[in-house]
Amino acid sequence: MAPMTTGTPSRADANRRRILDVALTELLRDPDASMDQIARAAGVVRRTVYGHFPSREALVGTLVDGAVEAVAAAHAKGREAAEGPAEAVARGTLAVWEIADRYRILVALAQRSVTVQGIRDRLTPVREACTEVLRQGLDEGVFSSPLPAPALAYVHEQLLFALMEAVNEGMLAAEEAGRSAAVTALTAAGVPASRATELVAKLSD
Amino acid sequence: MAPMTTGTPSRADANRRRILDVALTELLRDPDASMDQIARAAGVVRRTVYGHFPSREALVGTLVDGAVEAVAAAHAKGREAAEGPAEAVARGTLAVWEIADRYRILVALAQRSVTVQGIRDRLTPVREACTEVLRQGLDEGVFSSPLPAPALAYVHEQLLFALMEAVNEGMLAAEEAGRSAAVTALTAAGVPASRATELVAKLSD
DNA sequence: GTGCAGTTGCACAACAATGTGCAATGTACG
DNA sequence: CGTACATTGCACATTGTTGTGCAACTGCAC
User: Fold this and answer.
1) pLDDT at residue A4, as a whole number
2) Distance between CA atoms of A73 and A102, rounded to whole angstroms?
């Protein structure tokens, strides 16, 4: 096999990718899924997984790295084109919604015993950026909440997580979910429902 | 020792209770805590725990039973004196807040791999009652949300969980937490921030 | 003190999961 | 076909956890 930067995926690389994909969904279902469960779900033998990742820690770590990167990128992308805190929250929510699974695995792993040391740490830059937007909104009076900005950011995080689970459980139609999430995120921050609905509708035309 | 219905706790009963208490906080910290961790934290040997509970499942089950009962009672108590959906949500939130730890352990265990089969099931009566209140509020126009009632109920649940964690992480002062939670629960449902604040202030005079 | 419930300190078997070694087997590519 | 690499199917040692058995110990009541 040639060391091509681009070209034929070489079955090994394909397997590696598929293992990562399957591991994502499997760990989403059960954060304590064993290497054997993941391997079987990926259609390979446990031994093969160890051919790609030296340890469970490494496998989950790779997964987390990708997710952190994706989430950070989505957050940034959503925020950069925004005018004001409200629009930033709305755009950010809509952007993150595009990579819902990556976000879910991070929150799911972060809120349980620290499977990979430092998920919270690696996620904090994003959370701090989010906190800053919320603080600005609170200062400007665009948002109205009795909560301090950090707590509001945490609520925001869990709110998205909850709605992603709701879609997963069939309580919420996947079509409207993104917009609904954005509206709910805004109203939870104290933005009037009418204004929130209007803003989100404008952004997702 | 006599088979008294009330009276001296008899060291054994005292130990049993302490084990349950410690198990609550320990499982809150790490839902996969081993019997040894729990035993040591309770100041006894692992073998002693098995003298009170035949298995880990039984221990956690007893814990969950008590928590479900407490949460259901709090919810009911908060709702019975309420006039209208908004006040029901506010009172319910404030009531549940009194037994935050019991609530947290339930949500924490329910949202991970099913440690005890049927936590979700045993919690659904409460959730359905909550859903009904929210649905009524949406119908009456007191609440304004793009979310269907079940999804909103789920958001409500996770919102409380998030704020309890926020208190635990020091992001939110324990004093104001209950009122802040109630206000946030209302605004997330689409109640104007001013009205929510006013209502909660009135209820917690 | 004597008795007794409760606790302790082992020892043990059973099981599940991790990580490694190695020979056999498949499979692509020239 | 033959070479090179990936995958497979074991076997194995190791570790952590669960649940049980039993003898010794502790404290409290009588």
Assistant:
1) 44
2) 12
B72 Cβ neighbours under 8 A, 6+ residues apart: B125, B126
| Helices vs. strands in chain B: H and E counts, helices first | 10, 0
| A141 CB closer than 7 A to any strand C atom | no
Task: Quote the pTM value.
Answer: 0.90
**Cβ contacts of A42 within 8 Å, gap of 6 or more:** A15, A18, A19, A21, A22, A23, A49
List of chain A residues whose C-beta atoms are within 8 Å of the C-beta of residue B31: 112-113
> What are the residue boundaries of the structural domains of chain A, listed by start?
10-54, 56-204
Which residues of chain B lie closer than 8 angstroms to A171, CB-CB? Answer: 148, 150-151, 154
B36 alpha-carbon distance from chain centroid: 26
Query: What single string gives the DSSP state of each residue in B18-73?
Result: HHHHHHHHHHHH-TT--HHHHHHHTTS-HHHHHHH-SSHHHHHHHHHHHHHHHHHH
Contacts of A148 in chain B (CB under 8 A): 171-172
Report the largest interatomic distance among the alpha carbons of chain B, rounded to a whole angstrom: 61
Q: Does B168 touch chain A (CB under 8 A)?
A: no
Q: What tokens does A157 get?
A: 């995080």
The integer distance in angstroms from the CA atom of B12 to the C1' atom of C5 is 9
Q: Is the pLDDT of residue B165 over 50?
A: yes
Taking an 8 Å cut-off on Cβ atoms, the answer to whether A162 and B159 are in contact is yes
| CA angle in degrees (0–180, nearest 5) for B122-B27-A120 | 110
Angle, helices A149-168/A85-97, rounded to nearest 10 degrees: 30
CATH number of this structure's domain B56-204, picked from the four choices 1.10.357.10, 3.40.50.2000, 1.20.272.10, 3.40.50.300: 1.10.357.10
Whether the Cβ atoms of residue A88 and residue A78 lie closer than 8 Å to each other: yes
User: How confident is the model at residue B2, as a pLDDT?
Assistant: 38
Q: Which fold has domain A10-54?
A: Arc Repressor Mutant, subunit A (1.10.10)
